Amino acid sequence: MSSGAKIAAPRVAEIVGPANAVDGADKLAAYEVDGVRPGAAARPETAEEIAGLVKYAATEKLAVIPIGARTMLGIGMPPARYDLAIDMTRLDRVISYDPGDLTLSVEPGIPLAKLAATLAEHKQFLPLGVPFFDCATVGGTLASGVDSPLRHAYGTAREFVLGMEFVSGDGAVTKSGGRVVKNVSGYDLHKLMLGAIGSLGVITRVNFKTFPRPALARGFFAAFETMEKALELRERIMRSKLSLLTLDLGSPGTGELFSSATAAKVVPEVVTADLPAHGKWTISCGFWGSTDVLARYEGDLQQMAADSGAIRVDTIGEDEIPGQFGRKREFVAIVSALSPGAIVMKLSVRASQLQEAHAKARSIVGAAPVDHVTLTNGAGVIYFAMLPRRTGDATQACRQATGQIMKAITALGGYATIIRCPLELKREINVWGAPREDFPLMQRVKRAFDPHDIFAPGRFVGGL
């Protein structure tokens, strides 16, 4: 479907140069969002060119969507309008990097994998281990608000994004925060950009705090017959003094998913075939330190697992960590590759409600012709994936279950959103769920940042 926009192609070409102005149905198909095709696309190289495009769009009332590597464009509702795609991939440079000061400034179109290689030369990294890591860009990752398994140790991007430059809805190049920790002052306006899927502005520069890369690391797995026993270990770990890199709970089916041929295509690094244990609830975690620290952590984890009723424990070394961590990181990508009809929900509840939330969601899916698998991170966020079986009513059963799970989680006082689903489902269910109490404040923020309502209209919460 085309937006039917009336865009002056010569004006776009004038701003970014003829070679970087994209038109023609075939080329523009690559910029579709939920089946809506823009009237034109531009590939700017500087913040000034982006500001020029935004000013033009504001004047002509054109709807704009910033586009990165297109890995997480499925997040959000279909755009109400979509006239101009701003392709950010030419802004892919490291602007400054001071390893001694642990600070970094980059353009938003730089791929995460490319940036990781640069940081690795100085034995540093960013805890942005997110799905589609090999091709995802920094800007797209921050705008989509997706989680990393490393959130358990490092928090979300809000914790290590020091500052940002972005273009607001009136075309102004705006700066927020700082480039180093000691210079960060004032309001953290840039944090509003995180997870806003481009509805408030176009990110043109990001300043990060970097972290030393772990020298030695290990992984630990404990398998259980029941969810209750697995959660008991999780609680013991949370109460302990252990400082883990990752802590995740996988449901039965996670092991089969991660050892599948599909998983091997997404993450080719070698893993032990039956880890996580097939058909069991599994707690998996990662930790790092000196040889002595690793030995103490392993001993403490084994004792806590035994006290919690684990039926099997395993420890993995450096050779298997890339494969096992990579498959946890790519949970959404693996599920998506396995079935085009897959639905992935993000369920956020208090830690004390994890067992009840799991039980309600699994009960709703119940006897429906739907396979389901979950991965719960250390912050207590449940990624609940439903994969319809090859039966006529499976797709409809998935849709019904999705709505019921959203209501059940809301009733618990939590939040449920859909981060991956077929387009058809978005015509029946709002993927963001019902607007929350702070929605009027979100509306005021939208009007302040985007007074002409040109950024991704209709895609964000409540149709913002």
Note down, in words, how this protein is organized.
The chain has 464 residues and is of the alpha+beta class. The protein is built from 16 helices and 19 strands. It has helices at residues 9-16, 25-28, 47-60, 112-120, 138-144, 151-154, 227-239, 254-258, 261-266, 291-307, 321-329, 331-338, 354-365, 394-411, 423-426, 439-449; strands at residues 21-22, 40-42, 64-67, 84-87, 94-98, 103-106, 124-125, 161-167, 173-177, 202-209, 211-212, 217-224, 246-250, 281-288, 312-316, 343-348, 370-376, 381-388, 415-420. The strands form 4 sheets. The chain has an 8-stranded antiparallel beta sheet, with helices on both faces. A 5-stranded antiparallel beta sheet has the order 5-6-10-8-9. A 4-stranded mixed beta sheet has the order 1-2-4-3. Strand 5 and strand 6 (103-106) form a beta hairpin. Helix 13 (354-365) packs antiparallel against helix 14 (394-411). The longest helix has 18 residues, at 394-411. The two termini are 21 Å apart. The model has no long low-confidence stretch (mean pLDDT 92).
What are the salient characteristics of this protein?
5-stranded antiparallel beta sheet, 32% helix, alpha+beta, single chain, 8-stranded antiparallel beta sheet, 464 residues
In short:
Helix content is 32%, strand content 21%.
Task: Compute the average pLDDT.
Answer: 92
**Which stretches are low in confidence, meaning pLDDT under 50 for 5 or more residues running?**
none
Overall outline? globular
The largest sheet, given as strand count, sense and whether it forms a barrel, is:
8 strands, antiparallel
Strand order of the largest sheet: 15-12-14-13-17-18-16-19
Strand fraction = 15-25%
Number of helices: 16
Which structural category fits the helices and strands? alpha+beta
Helix content: 25-40%
Radius of gyration: 22 Å
Q: How far apart are the first and last residues' alpha carbons, in Å?
A: 21 Å
Tell how many strands the DSSP assignment holds: 19
